[in-house]
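Could you show me just one protein sequence together with its fold in C-alpha cell form as a worked example?
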Amino acid sequence: MIRIGIVGIGFMGMIHYLAAQKLKNAKVTAICSRDPKKLSGDWRGIRGNFGPPGQKMELAGVKRYDRLEAMLADPDIDLVDICNPTVLHPATAIAALRTGKHVLVEKPIALELKDADGMLKAAGHAGKLLMVAHVLPFTPEFAFAADNIRGGKYGRLLGAHFNRAISRPDCSADIAVPARTGGPAIDLHIHDTHFIAFACGAPNRVFASGLQQDGTVQYLTTQYLYDAGGPAVSCSSGAVAQKGRPFVHGYEVYLERATLVYESGAVPLTVYTADGKSKQPRQVAGGELAGFTRELQAAVAGVRRGHAPELLSGELARDALALCLKECLSVQSGKPVPVASQA
C-alpha cells in the first residue's frame, strides 16, 4: 500500500483527494494545510472551474498537519502530492525529496527553469522520483489523440490545431496573481505545450502572437515550427472568454487517413475517414475526475516500480515550461524563437 500525503488543500488539493478515493493499492493517509477549518474537514469554501463544490469532508483516519516539516517527518508517507501554489512548488518538492519521499507535484513544475532544474537535481541526489501531474493525456479524448498521433494507425501527422480558453479566473485569491501562478500563458497553456511536445514532438522554433496585460501574456496563438516536411501544428490558449463561456478545450488533428475532432461541451470525439464516414470511439467511463484518478494511479505505479511513467516525467514537464517561456518571449519580441536545447 502506497501512502500519500497531500500538501495544500485548495481546489487542486481537493480534486486530488477526491480522485484518490478510487485508487488501488494506495490511499491518502495525511494532509497538510495552514487553514484550521480545512484541517477540521470544512472544505465548503473551496471552488474551481470544474468538479464538485467543496463540502464537509470525513477525515477519520487521515493525519492532519499544519506544518510541512511535521508531515515530512512522518515515516508513514511514501509519496508527497504537492498541490500548493506554483510559486511554492520548488521549495516544497526539494524539502520532500531531501527527507526521502517520492514526489508528485501539480503542473506547472515551477515558474522558472532554474527552479525546475533544481528540483530535478534534488531528485537525482535523493534517488527518489520527481513526477509532475499533467492530467490532460490521462483524459480519454486526449489519450486517444496521443495514441493515434504517436501510434500511426491512421498514418503520419500532417497538422493539428489545439484550443484552450477560459474566462478570467476568480476562484481563489492566488489564481489571478501572475507572480504566484505565471498567468494564463504558464498556468493554463502549459497543458498544451506538454501535450504537443509529448504527442507531436518538440518543435525547432515557436512563433506566437498574443495579448498582454502588465507584462503578462493573457492569451496567445502559437505556431510550432518543425523541420521542412514536418507537421503544421498550432494552438490558441488563454484567459480571453466571457463568463458565459467559462471554459472550452479541444482540437482538430489531421492525419494521413483520418481527421480527429473534439470540442468540450459541443463536439464529442469523432473520427472522420476518407470514405466519408465518421465514428465516435467508445470512451472509458468514470466521470469528471477519472483522469485525475488515472494520473494518480500512474504515480503510484511509478513508486512501486521505482521509475517515473513517461507522462509524469519531470524532464518532460520542465521542457513544457521552457516551451511556454519561449512562446511568451515570442509574443513580447514579435519574432520566432528557437527552441533547440530547451534552455
Residues 141-284+320-338 form a domain with the Dihydrodipicolinate Reductase; domain 2 fold (CATH 3.30.360.10). The chain has a mean pLDDT of 94. The chain has two domains: 2-135+292-312, 141-284+320-338.
